[in-house]
Amino acid sequence: MTQDTIRKEEKRTAHNDLDQILTNLSLLNDKAKGCLIQEREQSEKEDITLNDIMREIIEIKTRVNKPSYAQMTMNSKTIPVSMIPPARTAQQNSQLEEEKKKDKARIEQARKDVILTTREADEETKTKVENIEEETLASSMKQYIQQNAKTDIAVEDVKKLGKNAIRIRCRSKDDATELREISWDGILKGIMTETTEYGVVLHGVPKQYMEDIEGLMADIEQANNIKVKRIVPLRKKARNPDAPTLSIVIFLNSPKEANTCIDESVTINKKYHNNTVITSKTLYAAERYTPQCQLKLCYNCQEYGHKANICKKKTVCGNCAQGHETRSCPNDELKCANCNDAHRTGHHQCPRHKEEIEKMEIRRNRIPPNFTC
Ligand SMILES: [Zn+2]
Ligand SMILES: [Zn+2]
Ligand SMILES: [Zn+2]
């Protein structure tokens, strides 16, 4: 064998070895990916939070690195307590479980409810629904259902939800499913069945974007590969009207897609508005929209927990706590309807108001960050 052939042979072997190493590496890579996916599924199953994992790692590190007596005398540094995230207490865990159960119960109930909305209807229908008595509505609805449904449908009750929605509660899921397919044009023109929706909240969105909601919807759908149902501002009245940004709620039909938004954030590609560049592609953190955690103060009865559009209680003044509308209050002296102190109802210093804010905060912390699918 000549020197040359030996060199060639060596080169070939080296090449083969390299190939083998590369193959092994890619196999390893695939394995690692598999592990990651498995781990992710596992963590979803067991609801291990990042905090729990971090705490465990730090605990393991502390154990592994436990210094010998000699080391201890040499170096007294240990991991500061502040670095260890607190473990969830048993109480917090059971609260979380409870909220999850409630979440499931809500979904179960929603399957038996048919929600009708006047959102797409004309003014005539809107006014009609707004002004009709609940009892009258219920009896005509039940009659209409009897005449138009293919099977016998057991309706538990019919309720007005605010000014522009009606809830028909059925005894069974199947009844509700059938009812969702009925056309309501024969009783209230333009009224439509509302599909269950899952909202995610984005903060700090440029206000100009909301001037072209259709465009924004298309942008978000395309950039995130999701189907958007509708987009609304989080608050009807902006806290600071001069702020250049606002918080929005994106409603989706799919709880899975809503969860993807929460887990991976939402991209908005929009760069132009009236041919002017506003921003480049931006990633917005998304959080679960939880209307059940929103502070509600009824401006009709001045009580917390509901809004005026569904209130059936007596009118109470938000200035003086007497029985008239706030806007037609003739009194100068202030009196809170909830604590009798000398301030308007809903004043930020009111002990009852503070209590309500705290209650909502606790509720918010208990609600799972993702939707139950
Ligand atoms: Zn009320
Ligand atoms: Zn008054
Ligand atoms: Zn008060």
Report on the structure:
42% of the residues lie in helices and 15% in strands. It has 373 residues and is an alpha+beta fold. Among the domains are: 89 residues, Alpha-Beta Plaits (2-Layer Sandwich), CATH 3.30.70; 88 residues, Alpha-Beta Plaits (2-Layer Sandwich), CATH 3.30.70; 84 residues, no CATH class. The chain has a four-stranded antiparallel sheet with strand order 2-3-1-4.
Summarize this entry quickly.
With 373 residues, the protein is α+β, with helices and mostly antiparallel strands. Helices cover 42% and strands 15% of the residues. The strands form 4 sheets. Strands 2-3-1-4 form a 4-stranded antiparallel beta sheet.
Overall 3D form: globular
Alpha plus pi helix count? 10
* Topology as a string of helices (H) and strands (E): HHHHEHHEEHEEHEEHEEEEEH
Hetero groups in this structure are: zinc ion
Strand content: 15-25%
Give me the secondary-structure topology.
Layout: H1 3-46, H2 50-64, H3 69-74, H4 90-112, E1 113-117, H5 123-131, H6 134-148, E2 155-161, E3 165-170, H7 173-179, E4 192-194, E5 198-206, H8 213-224, E6 228-233, E7 245-252, H9 255-264, E8 266-268, E9 272-273, E10 276-277, E11 282-284, E12 286-288, H10 351-366
Antiparallel strand pairs: 1-3, 1-4, 2-3, 5-7, 5-12, 6-7, 8-11, 9-10
Bound molecules: zinc ion (3 copies).
One zinc ion binds at residues 317, 319-320, 322, 324, 329, 331.
